[in-house]
Amino acid sequence: MDRGLAPSAGDGGHDDAEFELVDDIEGDVSLGLEEINELLGELVEMHGDRRRRDAEIVGFRLGVSGEAPETLARIGARYDLSRDRIRQLHTRAVGQIIREAQLSGHRAAGVFGARYPVGTRDSQLVRALLVETYATDSDIAANELSYLKLRLAGHAGEDARRIAGFVMQRIMAWQKKTNRRLAKLHHAEPSASDEVNSWLGQVDRPGSVVAAALPRGSARVVDGDDDGRGRFYLGKVGRDVPFDSGLEARLLRILNASDLIATFQEQPSAVEYQVDGTDRVFYPSIVAELADKRAVLIDVQPLGHVGFHINRAKSAAGRAYAHANGWGWLVWTGSRLGVPELRGRQVDSQSESRLRELVDSGPVHWPAIQRLRTETGLELLDLTTLVLRNEWRWDRAPFRLTAGR
Fold first, then answer.
1. What percent of the chain has pLDDT over 70?
2. With 0-12 CB in 10 A as exposed, 13-18 as middle and 19+ as buried, what is 59?
């Protein structure tokens, strides 16, 4: 089902784009889209056998592990390289990945070709790619992701560059339109407060710890002014606020419009966490102070990504950090379904029992999930529910499901 950032009718970038952010991305989450992302991860990992650093750069930029894509500046800080050098290395590696996939006859050509067929009108491809961008929180890397998807589908380089450029034009046009709309947000207060109210039941509350004051600035400084990020003026905090994606922008608009929210600070803290013994850091999206003086640390994780091991590790660290500061913790999914609702979802009993058997017998790989989908109708949210409920470990790039963290 195609929803999300919806462009108006027309070909490619030759008309004035109109966009709306859907209220719930649930309809855009599917195993079909996850297969595309899994294949991207598989191709990047294969490239890593030859050029490990270049594959890591592509992985961070495209978000193949399931985390949100990173800016070129932040990736550069990891390797002590300039933004322009990271761009060069990324571009070179993507070209090599495309050639390797073509020369090897990798099955990605068939899967990508079916999803983004050659000969399809530009406007249809742009719409599909925008929907995927919004549902996966990947606006920062939308140009690179769109180009790579189209090239793997068999589109010529010139066509892929043109269509990917249209995708970015649409995103930029939406950002400008959103900025113009903010003056009218007082009309949205009742609906925004209703939505905030619906989240409050999902908040993981701390014990009887006195809430720390909100930080007065962002902890994210390496790429805080990166030109790939959007920004708009929000009256509640009286300044320009940057954002990485349509999902983040939607969350900010709701917080700004709701009378249940007193104030907020984006990327308030650098939170350390570990994945398989490796130290890492992330920046939770927002800390919001409610009108009743309670505070909630909120991290944006798109609905289809909350089950990934790396995101669950981040969530555990974010929750511990929030509670130590006397704040609540909330993973905001872009959907009415939060983590508590996902855990409690009903799943077809046959799908559940079959998947349990597979996990109990050893690591489960992507072909087994595809067979299970064909045989039982298993879908991505079913898989996510069972992962969360059973505390299984779900790794991406490449896919691997195991019984235990």
1. 91
2. buried
Averaged pLDDT for residues 153-167: 98
Instruction: State how far the Cα of 37 lies from the Cα of 44, in Å rounded to an integer.
Output: 11
348: three-class secondary structure by DSSP: coil
How does residue 12 score in pLDDT terms, banded at 50, 70 and 90? very low
Cite the DSSP H helix spans in 231-279: 246-257
SS3 label, residue 382? helix
> For residue 226, what are its two tokens?
């990166």
Query: What whole-number distance in Å separates Cα of residue 72 and Cα of residue 58?
Result: 10
For 132, list phi and psi in degrees, rounded to 5.
-65, -40
How many residues are there in the chain? 405
Tokens 């803290």, residue located = 269
- In this structure, which amino acid lies at residue 90? H
Query: For helices 122-136 and 246-257, what crossing angle results, to 10°?
Result: 60
What confidence tens digit (pLDDT) does each residue in 297-349 have?
A: 999 999 999 999 999 999 999 999 999 999 999 999 999 999 999 999 999 99
**Structure confidence at residue 228 (pLDDT):** 84
Q: Under DSSP, is residue 337 helix (H, G, I), strand (E, B) or coil?
A: coil
Written as one string, the DSSP assignment of 278-301 is EEEEE--SEEEEETTS-EEEEEE-
Query: Which residues neighbour 144 within 8 Å (Cβ) at sequence distance 6 or greater?
Result: 61, 62, 90, 94, 164
Q: Helices in 139-234 by DSSP H: which ranges?
A: 142-152, 157-181, 189-200
Closest by alpha carbon to 228, among 127, 335, 94, 90?
Answer: 90
Residues 6+ apart with CB under 8 A from 261: 196, 236, 255, 288, 289, 290, 291
The DSSP bridge pattern shows strands 328-332 and 295-300 to be parallel
212-255 per-position pLDDT tens digit: 999 999 999 999 888 888 999 999 999 999 999 999 999 999 99
- Measured between alpha carbons, how far is 81 from 84 in angstroms, rounded to an integer? 8
